[in-house]
Amino acid sequence: MPFPEAGGLISYGRRTDGEGRSFGVYVGRILKGANPADLPVQQSTRFELVINLKTAKALGLTVPQALLARADEVIE
């Protein structure tokens, strides 16, 4: 996620890797004549937590160990 990599403290959101394929499938269905209103709504099922410890230290914050253990990525 670009926010913590740019110096942000914490980011939590959907993972975008692999979603391009599902978008392509939707577009393909529509181009083949499917009505967009008839297509099922898809929601993200994979989320990612990224913590920037350098920023936390600069702000004088201590990130709880339990939160660090749940993080998908920790920037040190």
Give a description of the structure:
The protein has 76 residues and is an alpha+beta fold. It is built from 4 helices and 3 strands; from the N terminus they run αβαβααβ. The protein has helices at 2-5, 19-31, 53-59, 65-70, and strands at residues 10-14, 47-52, 73-75. A 3-stranded mixed β-sheet has the order 1-2-3.
Task: Summarize the model shown.
With 76 residues, the chain is an alpha+beta fold. It has helices at 2-5, 19-31, 53-59, 65-70; strands at residues 10-14, 47-52, 73-75.
Write the layout of secondary structure elements.
Layout: H1 2-5, E1 10-14, H2 19-31, E2 47-52, H3 53-59, H4 65-70, E3 73-75
Mean pLDDT value? 90
Q: What is the number of helical segments per DSSP (H or I, 4+ residues)?
A: 4
Quickly give the structural class: alpha+beta
Give the topology string: H per helix, E per strand: HEHEHHE
In terms of DSSP E residues, the strand content is: 15-25%
How helical, in percent, are the residues?
25-40%
Which descriptor suits the 3D outline? Answer: elongated
Poorly predicted sequence stretches spanning 5 or more consecutive residues: none
**Assembly classification:** single chain
Round the Cα radius of gyration to an integer and report it.
18 Å
Biggest sheet: strands, sense, closure?
3 strands, mixed
User: What is the total tally of β strands?
Assistant: 3
The CA-CA distance between the termini, in Å, is 15 Å
Spatially, the strands of the biggest sheet line up as 1-2-3
